Amino acid sequence: MIYLTPHFTLEELTASDTADECGIDNSAPTEVRDRLAQLAGKLEDIRSLLGAKPVMVSSGYRCPQLNKAIGGAETSAHLYGCAADFIVPEFGDPYKICCYLTELPGFLYDQLINEEGGGARWVHIGLAVSGEPRCNDLTIASGVTKTGFYPV
């Protein structure tokens, strides 16, 4: 295993059941690996801020073929190694996590999304692909995107 940080591996941030099922090679190119290391650093920050509770990543990097297979946005930060979807069950639900993180001074991100789909719920953290982080707070549920966080 290749550890990017003490708690997050390259394998964890490139793993995909869909890629495995469809025979898609979701290996991260070198330039994406550098971004994944930054993303892993942000996930370490989140882990620490949430009381050292385990952060369980369900999606990190997605190559273009995988992103298309799952119906991801054409401009998804996942394509660049700048986004992860995760849960922290020992801390609380995604809504609680989003609300907590946005209250912390100096916690920067491009997008933080309280997300729901297919019966699952998760937090999406996106880092800026380029430029300054926008600190966009969103809720996506039942295919509808709203600004701000709402319970789903």
Characterise this structure:
The structure is a single chain. The longest helix is centred in the first third of the chain and has 20 residues, at about 30-50. The protein is of the alpha+beta class. The chain has a 6-stranded mixed beta sheet with strand order 1-2-4-3-5-6. The chain is globular and about 40 Å long. The chain has a single domain (about 10-145), classed as Muramoyl-pentapeptide Carboxypeptidase, domain 2, CATH 3.30.1380. It starts with 9 loop residues before the first helix and ends in a 5-residue tail after the last strand. Helices cover about 30% and strands about 20% of the residues.
CATH class: Alpha Beta
Strand arrangement in the largest pleated sheet: 1-2-4-3-5-6
Number of domains: 1
Order of helices and strands: HHHEHEHEEEE
Counted beta strands: 6
Fraction in beta strands = 15-25%
CATH architecture: 2-Layer Sandwich
How would the global form be characterised?
globular
Sheet with most strands: 6 strands, mixed
Kindly report the CATH topology. Muramoyl-pentapeptide Carboxypeptidase, domain 2
| Radius of gyration, in angstroms, nearest whole number | 14 Å
User: What's the multimeric state?
Assistant: single chain
Q: What is the number of helical segments per DSSP (H or I, 4+ residues)?
A: 5
